[in-house]
Amino acid sequence: MTYGHLMKNRFLKFFLGILLVIIVFELMLIEKSSNKDGFVNYFATFDKIDGVNVGADVTLSGIKVGEVSKIILDNNYPNLQLTVDKKLKISSDSSVSIQTDGLFGSKFLVIEIGGMESYMKDGDAFSFAEDSMLIQDLLKNIISIGEKNKL
Length: 151
Fold this sequence. Notes:
Blueprint: H1 3-35, E1 39-45, E2 57-60, E3 63-74, E4 77-85, E5 95-100, E6 107-112, E7 128-130, H2 135-150
Parallel strand pairs: 2-6, 5-7
Antiparallel strand pairs: 1-4, 2-3, 3-4, 5-6
């Protein structure tokens, strides 16, 4: 093999590698933009969201229907943007709460459907949001109940 042939071969491999990276990047962008078409955004303001991160699941009746897409600090309170399947009919008086998967598991949000016949629209906020329960708070409650029963 000649030196020119080796250089041409290296250039071809380099060019194909760059082309592959561009194609993969474009596919990632296409997938993200097409996924957002079937979703709406709702907002929920909490006092504390300890352990909730962007990407946390949003569930309804135990089924994943969306995820936390953004966390914003609004007037010193965490405001979560929830991206949820737009085929769902969520009544205006529905609530959302932060739950834990097991004792030390990851945090996720649960939507509890209300009874009204009017439905939330893209950009609406939940009227009621229940904060995350911290393990320390739970243990304090258990200890105080035990002390009261001891007397």
